[in-house]
Amino acid sequence: MTGAADLASRLTGDGLLVVKIGSSLLIDESGRLREAWMGRLVEHLARRPGPVVLVSSGAIALGRGALGLDARPRLLAQAQAAAAVGQIHLAAAWSSCWRAQGRDSAQILLTLGDLEQRRRYLNARATLETLVERRIVPVVNENDTVATEEIRFGDNDRLAARVAQLLGAEALLLLSDVDGLYTADPGSHANARHIERVEQITPEIEAMAGQPGRRGVGTGGMASKLAAARIASGAGVAVWLASGLSEDPIGELQNGARSTCFPPSARPRAQRKQWLAGLQAPAGRLHLDEGAVAALQGGASLLAVGVRAVEGEFDRGDLVQLLGPRGPVGQGLCAYSADEARRIAGCQSDRIDEVLGEAGRGAMVHRDDIALSF
Ligand SMILES: Nc1ncnc2c1ncn2[C@@H]1O[C@H](COP(=O)(O)OP(=O)(O)O)[C@@H](O)[C@H]1O
Ligand SMILES: N[C@@H](CCC(=O)OP(=O)(O)O)C(=O)O
């Protein structure tokens, strides 16, 4: 099946579909919500037999007018105040669109911590599953009003990918103001070519990603969409990036409008590894030698002997990024604090107890606690 035909069948199918809608689509040039557009989108989605989850951006762009700001707020407090004003309108508008189709919707506002901590993650999953089972449509956004600069998703692309992963969705549709991935930002490169299918997100693919679009309402640009595609496809979710600019994007996609497809991994990670791979806020970095990278790729744990340097401050159990000589290789939960990790970095396993002055806890990062990126 071609990418377009495959997407068309998912749009009308009975699997769980997550649709992420960027700010640029929801808010018109004068800062108002495109309610007729939202209504048409919901009309299509309400017809499909399978459940739908929406991840809707737009709170800040919608609320900023009330604060008298014409551009994206620079101060965090202003962005948070704008989000507080915009979110209530956004939720009301989605609710009325779904009501018009005889369906209930529910507002879910998440902070990064809700998905980074395993217990809170399982709790969020239970809430979302309960809604989905009852055919109530969750409308998800980041809880911008309380999220601070250091602890936020920052873009809804990754939030959408993590919601899709958490629910074991069949497909994730990222609707944006561009009809897919191009070899370079089409906004500034007239010769950029459209890519219909990306089997693997390699460093060459990542190098194609540029900044957000021209209107100054989007946040993540193409880089965050690729990060989202990596998280979701690694979890067995098929991802499409498509344009929502026309008056009836879902109708056009059903009729074969072009998009970029990121097929689901043939060997999706186990649930806990999916959660690990989606974590976004490492507290430190471990620099590994070539031998350690090869061992990890062979499925082994990370031993202290393969760690050349330790950056950052973290406690045992915290998330750390793993870097090989040629760049990032993955992330994992470190069994040691930063201070302990610095002391044992480069040590053979049988010397760890002696160096620490107490019994060690085995590998620096156990293989069950590692999610590799390639
Ligand atoms: N390689 C690329 N292919 C396609 N679009 C790109 C690329 N690099 C950068 N972009 C830009 O990314 C923008 C979409 O990201 P963004 O503005 O964050 O949208 P959204 O609000 O939908 O999240 C496009 O308008 C486009 O200008
Ligand atoms: N949570 C923010 C949106 C963040 C975001 O990712 O925006 P976008 O790039 O337009 O999808 C808001 O509601 O304004």
UniProtKB/TrEMBL annotation:
State one molecular function term (GO).
ATP binding
* Record-listed E.C. numbers: 2.7.2.11
Gene3D superfamilies cross-referenced by the UniProt entry: Acetylglutamate kinase-like (3.40.1160.10), PUA domain (2.30.130.10)
Q: Which residues bind ATP?
A: 20, 176-177, 219-225
Statement: the UniProt record of this protein carries the keyword Transcription regulation = no
* Location(s), subcellular: Cytoplasm
One GO cellular component this record assigns the protein to is: cytosol
Q: Which residues bind substrate?
A: 57, 144, 156
* Listed PROSITE patterns: PUA
Keyword Iron in record: no
Q: State one Pfam family annotation.
A: AA_kinase
For this protein, what reaction is catalysed? L-glutamate + ATP = L-glutamyl 5-phosphate + ADP
Hey, which pathway is this one from? Answer: Amino-acid biosynthesis; L-proline biosynthesis; L-glutamate 5-semialdehyde from L-glutamate: step 1/2
Tell me where on the tree of life, at the top rank, the source sits. Answer: Bacteria
Primary role: Catalyzes the transfer of a phosphate group to glutamate to form L-glutamate 5-phosphate.
Q: What is the protein name given in its UniProt record?
A: Glutamate 5-kinase
Instruction: Give the species this sequence originates from.
Output: Wenzhouxiangella marina
